[in-house]
Write a structure and sequence with these properties.
The complex is a heterodimer of chains A (420) and B (170). With 420 residues, chain A is of the alpha/beta class. Chain A has helices spanning 5-14, 38-48, 72-88, 100-106, 138-147, 172-183, 198-202, 205-213, 229-238, 296-299, 302-312, 330-338, 341-348, 358-361, 398-407; strands at 23-27, 30-34, 59-62, 91-93, 115-119, 132-135, 149-153, 157-163, 192-196, 222-225, 256-261, 268-270, 278-280, 291-295, 322-326, 351-352, 373-376, 392-395. Chain A has two domains: 5-260, Aconitase, domain 3 (2-Layer Sandwich); 268-419, Aconitase, domain 3, CATH 3.30.499. Helix content of chain A is 33%, strand content 19%. In chain A, the strands form five sheets. A five-stranded parallel β-sheet of chain A has the order 4-3-2-5-6, sandwiched between helices. Chain A has a five-stranded parallel β-sheet with strand order 16-15-14-17-18. Chain A is globular. Chain B is 29% helix and 18% strand. Chain B is built from eight helices and seven strands. A seven-stranded mixed β-sheet of chain B has the order 4-3-2-1-5-6-7, with helices on one face. Classes of the chains: A alpha/beta (420), B alpha/beta (170). Chains A and B meet through strand 1, helix 2, helix 3 and helix 5 of A and helix 2, helix 5, helix 6 and helix 8 of B.
Chain lengths: 420, 170
């Protein structure tokens, strides 16, 4: 019997012949924490009594969830992280650097074939560049920080094939929202998902990262893709280590297989308060919006900013509307300045804030009032996610979010077809 | 081994897909580091009166995919600090599952449809059974993996690693 990508990468890192269901100890190539999880990582690491970290270059911390700090409690956590980084000589991306899931691949910490743990549930993002990466809690991360290892259960795999050409105005965010609608919030729990097909080949690495990022929203442990020319070019530009691409065998065993024709898709929106509660944007045009948010580990990359800026260029957002933009990293921010996207955002009435993910997790930079409605490019719309349990969050692509900001209601971006 | 222990059920109004944001909101977990303080705010966004009703030794009753979403370890920590002896749900999300056993919080899996709020519940770890005393029902639980059982015995994964110097796989 052949092997899936997950079985191969975990076998390689356990130096054993593993199949789905096996439990093994694996060597981890890279691990990290963010400011919501690092405080407990530090506490657990000290409880373990480790004298040093297993490899200084294989760990970093990122301050992104509340950056810069909005209150004293958070400031104390940030200080604790900085002190630990200095004491153990480990890497630290401080406020303003960006979102962990952008920085980890962009700064070259990971490459094809790696096994990566992050103390953040959206660590599954780098599956798009052929990395077995998954989220864990803080104590699990501390164990890996001390030993370079952890225990893994080898997941079963669901195969998802994406065929066809994406229509104008439809993006990878719409693809993954449709898949989550179909599979459900619980449909891939503890499983690996392998995404393949000509629709994946056709899209950019940035667009692929959006798809893998949301694999966890259907419960998946990881959302993997094979490496192609685009992937290899991307990782070689960023990471100095030699990529070791891993493909699944043609006779690999899948627990189920799904096929989607993306040429039939239309722009999608996830309605409150569940990510699998998905509807066509065109059917929600009666929903009025108070706030828009463009950014996050799902959709804060350069091409996302470009799509939104094309729609907004020369126009003003609806009077009374608030629009927060947070580039996913400092480098993306600078590039967006150079290309004129930031100029467009500011002139159209958007507030561009520091790279980070605060608005998505409701810590600062745009907490909603009671009864307010937001449309966001993030990955979660749970009740209270943006800081107020009495508000409502709709999730959509950057194009749908930008179009909605212009009209003040949920808007299919194809209403601005000349700008797509 | 210890005799079966008596506990009372605290059933959530929302049963399926209760995420870790609902267990403890980001509003609190970013600024409060004391689990006992966090425990005062559990389930606030979906059931504001819930935290005040918990007695030490209670068992939390939930449905499918409990603990989905964020990787925050503050979620099982806050549950444990609020006095819950265990969680019984139909199924769990994977990161929450690991986090709970890592900190020594018992999770059991079985059909929870027949456990109402306030029901007296007995847990027999050896036989893998949950008994609803008032209703006279005995429910079979899904076996707990050996490694997770060892984490519980050792007071969590940190205690386990200190005891064995590594993971004690079967």
């Amino acid at each position: 019997m052949g092997k899936t990508i997950a079985e191969k990468i975990l076998s390689e890192h356990a130096k054993a012949d593993l199949k789905a269901g096996d439990i093994a100890i694996c060597d981890v190539d890279f691990c990290f924490g963010q400011d919501g999880t690092s405080s407990i990582i530090i506490d657990s690491f000290r409880k373990l009594g480790a004298a040093k970290v297993f490899d200084k270059s294989a760990f970093c911390m990122v301050i992104d969830h509340s950056a810069p700090s909005p209150n004293i409690g958070v400031s104390e956590i940030h200080k604790k992280m900085r002190t630990f980084a200095k004491e153990f000589g480990v890497g630290m991306y401080d406020i303003g650097c960006g979102v962990c899931h952008q920085l980890v691949p962009q700064k070259g910490h990971v490459t094809c074939g790696d096994l990566v743990l992050g103390a953040d549930s959206h660590t599954c993002t780098y599956g798009a560049i052929n990395v077995f990466s998954t989220g864990v809690g803080s104590t699990d991360l501390a164990i890996t920080l001390a030993s370079g290892k952890n225990w893994f259960k080898v997941p079963e795999t669901i195969s998802v094939t994406l065929n066809g050409k994406l229509p104008k105005g439809v993006y990878s965010k719409d693809i993954i929202l449709e898949i989550i609608r179909d599979i459900g919030a619980n449909g891939a729990t503890y499983k690996s998902v392998e995404f393949r097909g000509d629709a994946i080949s056709a899209i950019s690495v940035d667009s692929r990262l959006t798809i893998s990022n949301m694999a966890v929203e259907m419960g998946a442990k990881v959302g993997l893709m094979e490496a192609d020319e685009k992937t290899l070019k991307w990782v070689k530009q960023n990471c100095g280590r030699e990529p070791k691409p891993v493909k699944s065998d043609t006779n690999a065993r899948y627990v189920s297989a799904k096929t989607y024709d993306v040429s039939k898709l239309s722009p999608k929106v996830a309605k409150p308060h569940a990510v699998d509660n998905v509807e066509d944007a065109s059917k929600l045009s009666s929903i009025n919006i108070d706030q828009a948010f463009l950014g996050t580990c799902t959709n804060g990359r350069l091409e996302d900013l470009e799509v939104a800026s094309k729609i907004l260029k020369g126009k003003s957002i609806k009077t009374g509307m608030k629009f927060v933009v947070a580039p996913a990293s400092k480098e993306i921010f600078l590039e967006a300045v150079k290309k004129g996207f930031i100029d467009v955002f500011v002139k159209s009435g958007c507030m561009v804030v520091a790279p980070g993910c605060g608005p998505c997790v409701g810590t600062h930079n745009g907490v909603l009032a009671d009864g307010e409605v937001a449309i966001s490019t993030a990955n979660r719309n749970f009740k209270g996610r943006m800081g107020n349990p009495n508000s409502f969050i709709y999730l959509a692509s950057p194009a749908t979010v930008a179009a909605s900001a212009l009209t003040g209601r949920i808007t299919d971006p194809r209403e601005f077809s000349k700008r797509l | 081994m210890a005799k079966p222990i008596k506990h009372f059920a605290r059933r959530l109004k929302v049963q399926d897909n209760v995420n870790t944001d609902y267990v403890i909101s980001g509003r609190y977990k970013f600024k409060i580091q004391d689990p006992k303080e966090l425990a005062k705010h559990i389930f606030e966004d979906i059931d504001p009166d819930f935290a005040a009703r918990i007695q030490s030794g209670d068992i939390l009753i939930a449905g499918e995919n409990f603990g989905c979403g964020s990787s925050r370890e503050q979620a099982p920590q806050a549950l444990k600090s609020s006095g819950f002896y265990a969680v019984i749900a139909k199924s769990y999300a994977r990161i929450f599952y690991r986090n709970a056993f890592n900190i020594g919080l018992l999770l059991l899996e079985c059909d929870t449809d027949f456990i109402d709020d306030g029901d007296e519940v007995e847990i027999d770890m050896e036989k893998g059974k949950v008994r609803n005393v008032g209703k006279g029902l005995v429910l079979n639980t899904k076996p707990i993996p050996g490694l997770m059982k060892k984490f519980l015995e050792d007071g969590g994964v940190v205690g386990h690693l200190k005891k064995y110097g590594g993971f004690k796989l079967e």
